[in-house]
Amino acid sequence: MKAQKIKRTVLAVFMWLLSLIVLIPLLLIIINAFKSSAEADVMTLKLPEVWQFANFAVAVAESNIFRTFLNSVLITGVSVFASSILGTMAGYSLSRNRDKINRKVYSYFLLGLVVPVQVIALIQVLQKFRMMDSYAGIIFVYIAMFVPLSVFLAYSFVSSVPRELDEAAVMDGATPLQLFFHIIRPMLTPVIVTSFITQFVFIWNDFQYPLYLLSSSSKWTIVLGVYKFIGQFGSDWNIVCAYILLSSLPVILVYLMGQKYIISGMVAGAVKG
Amino acid sequence: MNYKKMYPRYLWMVPLVIYTLFYILPGILGIYYSFVNYTIYNDSKEFVGFANYIQMFSQNRFRVGLGNTMLFAVLTTVFKNLIGLAMAVALNTSIRSRNVLRTIFYLPVILSTLIVGQVFQAMLQPDTGLINHILSVFSSSALSFDWLGNPNTAMWMVILVEIWKGAGYCMVIYLAGLQVISKEYYEAASIDGATAWTSFKSITLPLIVPSISINVLLSVVNGLKVFDIIIALTGGGPGMSTQVLSTTIYSYLGSGALSTGCAANVVLTVFVIVVFFALNKLFAKLEVDH
Fold first, then answer.
1. What is the ipTM metric for this complex?
2. Which CATH superfamily is domain A63-233 in?
3. How many domains is chain B built from?
4. Three-state secondary structure call for residue B26
5. pTM for the full model?
6. Residues of chain A found within 8 Å of residue B272, distances taken between Cβ atoms
7. Is there a contact between A19 and B105 if contact means CB atoms under 8 Å apart?
8. What is the pLDDT along chain B (290 residues), one digit of tens a residue?
9. Distance to chain B for A48, nearest Cα, Å
10. Which is nearest to A84 in space by CA: B16, B109, B15, B24?
């Protein structure tokens, strides 16, 4: 029993040492965000001589960080909400009525789970629709990318919801939309949360599509904003670190508060996907 | 009851239209463009057969990109899985702080790849970066080594950073798989005198085949599509040493070679589909065998 306990302690110590590999880069950003420009020229873990809180004011004043934050909220929020709801509704109806057409439509949706996006052709399509460099364009692209996942997750999960519920609701005179929104959607909450979290983490952090599809700075997302800010202030790493810290803080806080749900949601999204 | 009335087709019409216009249509157009001579200077779109593909395969930019994409997908998959599995096994014991450790190891997963890449780019700088400062304790010549500026090391650094970011994801999938294995199997095995390694090999491994399958599939497919981490760390350089397929497409777009870019994208698509179905088949067989 004692040997067991020693073994466990050694293992715990080893895992904590390993966790430093994750924590040190984060610590580095925090420490250097408070240094003077000259001190941050060499990025080490040495504490700043004088804590420069003004770095954050400079980072905010020299950028449109709040604007990029709001853009990210808008783009991520609308895309994730729409694709989760629309995809779940589609997955539910395809699963409940598996006639010939619906089986074909379902397979057609599943294509999107594997096949990568054709980026250059996508840009051409958006230009034809006059949706390049617009919120609507990138939002539709994200919805199209993630609807297959929501459809797929809902399709298998709906089988566990008894059909008698649907029949009782229809007897009481519910329309198809009422049936979905009032009776079925509440039963599908776990699977909606799963698609919501999985997609949120992807879209919020995405860099590739904002880079391709958004050119005017007033529409940049927070991640694209970080990229452009570094291009501009690359020599002042204290300011860059302050900017990185500010833009990552919301994600880290949300993660620390809801990590139990976020991790299990993303695991469920992967296991079923 | 009439299913057609209860579950009318308009319930899937809206997402179907969005998905068709913004996913499938570009897909079909991309294939079409890859067989015509479409550039930003030439809009005539005349049919040229496989000329774009033949030309592309003769170009270094594409060939290096293809090779690097495969190297990246294979190595990150192997190491993310080995490290993720090891961490999961370690955290599946009764260490008291395991929940905190799990939260820490998963943290890189929820951070933006672009931002992570930029931070590591700063850490890997010669003379000023933290990594060389740590290494200079062991060897004084290490301080000025330029990891990302050297064509022989840049790709390896990109792979390392991706492992740093992705191992935690594999870990939680493995943890979920490990937690459903009944303790009784291990007790029975230890009564029979099995060592820790034998019970890992003959109990744990066969029972987590589903988790292995998910992790490998996701890592490989995402590895083939890699883009953000390359742009953040090296931008494809130095020279062409860290080009991958996605960044090749980006640079074809930048130089106006639209058709060639589409051809590269079609190759990427074919690659992803073939690899996905091959791996899927392999794992389906493995799961049946056990």
1. 0.89
2. MetI-like (1.10.3720.10)
3. 1
4. helix
5. 0.90
6. 114-116
7. yes
8. 678 788 888 899 999 999 999 999 999 999 999 998 888 888 888 888 888 899 899 988 899 999 999 999 999 999 999 999 999 999 988 888 888 999 999 999 999 999 899 889 888 988 888 888 888 888 777 777 888 888 899 999 999 999 999 999 999 999 988 988 888 888 888 888 888 888 888 888 888 888 899 899 999 999 999 999 999 999 887 888 999 999 999 999 998 889 999 999 999 999 999 999 999 899 888 876 65
9. 15
10. B15
